[in-house]
């Protein structure tokens, strides 16, 4: 294959991965909203639906391991269980937040993970942030606050679910980072290890949690062909979302990945407003705009911090290397010569 053909095929695969990620990430939110909302199919069993998602994802993971596409690394069971609990709380909280709140508030509440992760890393890892990052976080908080106050569809139960979702998802992100560093494991491989545990626990406990939160039993739900179609669509999009996320890792730069995230946010907000949220006030739009602008500033500030660190690191490394060479030279000049056979110093 010629270089030009290789470039064009690589460009096509990049566009394919990008497109799959945007369509699946945005599509799953729209499909779940239609499935779970009262105006849609009123499938108010968010935890059980999440169990279906992970059951299909676990199946894909097993096939991937069986075909040798992904290697398996050992992680202690207690760490997998801890991660599964946090991940289950995260995804279930997100689904209930989507079911009980408007799409706009659901998406904007997810942006509050930026300040929550910053605070958690500051508490847990004593991490410090630049002035630009702090400004961006403040803008995001103001935007999310305005959306919370002005969104007429926000209720106490929905707000609590959103808070649980944001806190657990933020903790999940930090846990993923620490597990990947600790065991040198990829995100898709980690997902294939935890998906069976998550699927089993959610499918067993899910109906009871759903009954406690919605007061309805899944056995009493009248399943229609439309609901079945949307459940299958939701499960398929969940797999595509996870796989595309894996495909995008390493393909794009940090900036491109952030642009991808911003594109998804704008798509969700626009489609959510067009398809589900008929009421959208000026203050609500202002809050959404502020939150999105804050997110963009945050991405820029983080990238700026990375570039500054990468510029200072080589200088530090060079000075250390020179120091090491100097010490080695002094050591060689001053060290006594040893007779290997006798192990005695010869002066």
UniProtKB/TrEMBL annotation:
Record's keyword terms, sorted: Membrane, Transmembrane, Transmembrane helix
Transmembrane parts of this sequence: 12-31, 43-63, 75-98, 135-152, 226-247, 259-276, 282-301
UniProt-annotated location(s): Membrane
Residues in Sugar phosphate transporter domain copies: 25-299
Cellular-component GO terms for this entry: membrane
Membrane topology of the entry: Multi-pass membrane protein
Protein name per UniProt: Bi-functional UDP-rhamnose/UDP-galactose transporter
Keyword Transmembrane: yes
């Amino acid at each position: 294959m010629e270089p030009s053909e290789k470039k064009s095929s690589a460009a096509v695969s990049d566009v394919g991965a990008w497109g799959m990620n945007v369509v699946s990430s945005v599509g799953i939110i729209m499909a779940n909203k239609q499935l779970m909302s009262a105006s849609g199919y009123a499938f108010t069993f968010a935890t059980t639906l999440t169990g279906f998602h992970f059951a299909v994802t676990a199946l894909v993971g097993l096939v991937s391991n069986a075909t040798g596409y992904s290697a398996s690394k050992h992680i202690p069971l207690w760490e997998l269980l801890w991660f599964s609990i946090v991940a289950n709380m995260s995804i279930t909280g997100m689904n209930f937040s989507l079911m009980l709140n408007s799409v706009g508030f659901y998406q904007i509440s997810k942006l509050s993970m930026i300040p929550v992760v910053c605070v958690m890393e500051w508490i847990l890892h004593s991490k410090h942030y630049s002035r630009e990052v702090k400004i961006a976080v403040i803008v995001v908080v103001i935007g999310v606050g305005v959306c919370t106050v002005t969104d007429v569809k926000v209720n106490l139960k929905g707000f609590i679910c959103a808070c649980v979702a944001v806190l657990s998802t933020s903790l999940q992100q930090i846990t993923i980072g620490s597990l990947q560093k600790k065991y040198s494991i990829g995100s898709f491989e980690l997902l294939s290890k935890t998906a069976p545990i998550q699927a089993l626990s959610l499918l067993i406990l899910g109906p009871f949690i759903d009954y406690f939160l919605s007061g309805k039993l899944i056995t009493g739900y009248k399943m229609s062909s439309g609901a079945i179609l949307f459940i299958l669509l939701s499960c398929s999009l969940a797999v595509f979302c996870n796989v595309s996320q894996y495909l995008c890792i390493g393909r794009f730069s940090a900036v491109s990945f952030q642009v991808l995230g911003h594109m998804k946010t704008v798509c969700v907000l626009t489609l959510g407003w067009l398809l589900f949220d008929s009421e959208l006030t000026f203050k609500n739009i202002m809050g959404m705009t502020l939150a999105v602008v804050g997110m963009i500033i945050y991405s820029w500030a983080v990238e700026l911090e990375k570039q500054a660190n990468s510029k200072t690191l080589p200088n530090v490394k060079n000075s250390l290397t020179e120091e090491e060479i100097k010490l080695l030279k002094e050591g060689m000049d001053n060290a006594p010569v040893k007779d290997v056979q006798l192990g005695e110093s010869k002066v």
